[in-house]
Amino acid sequence: MATQARHWRQIGTNVDVVVSNGALDAACAAVEARIDAADRTFSRFRSDSELSQLNRTPDTNVPVSELLALAIGTALEAAAMTDGLVDPSVGRAVRLAGYDRDFEQLQRRSEFAPTWNFETVAGWQAVKFDPLARTVRIPRGVELDLDSTGKALIVDLAAGAAAAVLPADAGVLVSIGGDMRVAGRPPRGGWRVLLSEDSATSPSSDGPVASIRSGALATSSTTVRRWRRNGQIVHHLIDPRTGRPSDGPWRTATVVAGTCVDANSAATCAIVLGRDAQAWLEQRGIPARLVAQDGQPTFVAGWPADESHAIPAAA
After folding, report:
1. At what angle do helices 147-164 and 260-273 cross, to 10 degrees?
2. Predicted local distance difference test score (pLDDT) of residue 124
3. Which of 63, 161, 188, 309 sits a CA distance of 20 to 30 A from 93?
């Protein structure tokens, strides 16, 4: 089965769409529209986004759109699933760490404020969300950050939208920033995925690969979105328990799951959890590939150790 692919940049990251036996233009248009809608709704870097307006309205029950309600509900479910280690209330901590603009702009900035004050994260349970009334109330001093689960949610929604415009015998892979979801009929042998810490790496490059036929694959890493802050190298994965960038034994976690949201949540949790990540993943039967700070991989819950043709099954 022949495949076609297209790559572009959107919302400051890499977007890749691959279709098998389908209409590439229609699939890409569906993906681009989903990304644009999400950016206008819950981007932390747009002052006119609905999320930014919510963050500027503390201690008030704020009515929100259907899409923002879905994104917030998804983030809170991920927080509950990970015992608060993937927490949407870390927005202020992320901003204080210096990640206060699109990463491409952040890389071009040469100076930071002379001081950096860590603050305790309020915790996801401080967010009051009524899914029926579609209202959200955040305490003063709390800023929601939906970058992690929000991007994964976009992937899930975009893959579904792309599959909907393709023929019944076609399939699609959607990757945004390296997090991906497949839908429809896969090519023979499954979708080949290069396991790389940087989503900008060409899929045809040498390296370990995975092949998935359904579900999603997500990677969280401390090696790419990092910057210098007052002489320190910091990254975007905040440990809610400290308000600081996580500092554990793993630099990268790759997970397969039924949805990109579940895969991303587990991967991020593994990085933040640190030494207990392997046991946490094993107990839940979540296949994962953990890469230590020295580059040594560890395979968890059935992830094949033969990485020349690894084929983990989506949960």
Report:
1. 160
2. 94
3. 63
Cβ-count burial of 91 within 10 angstroms (0-12 exposed, 13-18 middle, 19+ buried)?
A: buried
How far apart CA 64 and CA 55 sit, in angstroms, is 12
Q: 111-164: per-residue pLDDT in tens?
A: 444 455 566 778 999 999 999 999 999 999 999 999 889 999 999 999 999 999
CA distance 138 to 181: 31
Do 218 and 86 meet the contact criterion of CB atoms below 8 Å apart?
A: no
How many CB atoms neighbour CB 313 within 10 A?
Answer: 12
Tell me 48's DSSP state: T
pLDDT in tens, 76-93: 999 999 999 999 988 776
User: DSSP states of 191-251 as a string?
Assistant: EEEE--SSTTS-TTSSS-EEEESSSEEEEEESSSSEEEETTEEEES-EETTTTEE--SSEE
Where residue 17 falls among pLDDT bands split at 50, 70, 90? very high
Q: What is the mean pLDDT of the chain?
A: 85
- In this predicted structure, what is the pLDDT of residue 105? 46
How far is C-alpha 162 from the geometric centre of its chain's CA atoms?
19
Distance of CA 57 to the CA centre of its chain: 26
Contact by Cβ (8 Å): 238, 94: yes
- Please list the residues that pair with 298 across neighbouring strands: 290
| CB 88, CB 146: distance < 8 Å | yes
Q: Which of 103, 102, 139 is nearest to 124 (CA)?
A: 139
